[in-house]
Design brief:
Layout: E1 12-13, E2 19-26, E3 36-43, H1 51-60, H2 64-81, E4 99-106, E5 111-119, E6 129-134, E7 137-143
């Protein structure tokens, strides 16, 4: 059920007690560095991926460029709607690219993240910013300043 070309790394334990698997796939969206998108799955053990997690990955990875674009649009709308919440004040969005280096982070089956590792918004330090997705639709922006590293 894994999309073609997606090969998972060996699960790696992290200090919070979870396990991370990584894979990369080609991505033709301009924000994908070097034409590559990283896909990460966070799980509670190092066993095989759950079938519903594999099914979600299989659904969203083929739509990666469209999903990255939808996440960027959702983030832009959120910043325009409440610039002060993102630390930009009344002037709104800063000039130039605001985010880059997207990655898909699957941490459950109903919702998952498009994580932008680089973010020039004041709230983007030190871990970037994320757009929470439900299936392939953006539902919320998550400020990661106080989060554990993804």
């Amino acid at each position: 059920m894994t999309p073609p070309g997606l090969e998972w790394s060996t699960p790696e334990p992290v200090p919070d007690g979870t396990w991370h698997r990584r894979a990369t796939v080609p991505c033709d969206h301009p924000e994908c560095p070097e034409g590559v998108l990283e896909v990460r799955v966070i799980s509670t053990d190092n066993g095989p991926l759950a079938p519903d997690v594999e099914a979600l990955v299989a659904r969203v990875v083929p739509e990666r460029a469209r999903i990255v674009a939808a996440a960027l649009a959702h983030l832009g709308e959120a910043v325009r709607a409440d610039p002060e919440a993102f630390g930009t004040g009344a002037e709104g969005r800063p000039d130039g690219d605001v985010v880059s280096e997207p990655a898909f982070v699957v941490d459950g089956t109903e919702e998952w993240l498009v994580h932008f590792a680089e973010c020039s918004l004041p709230v983007g330090e030190p871990y970037g910013i994320a757009v929470r997705m439900r299936e392939d639709e953006p539902v919320a922006v998550e400020v990661l300043a106080d989060a554990a590293e993804l």
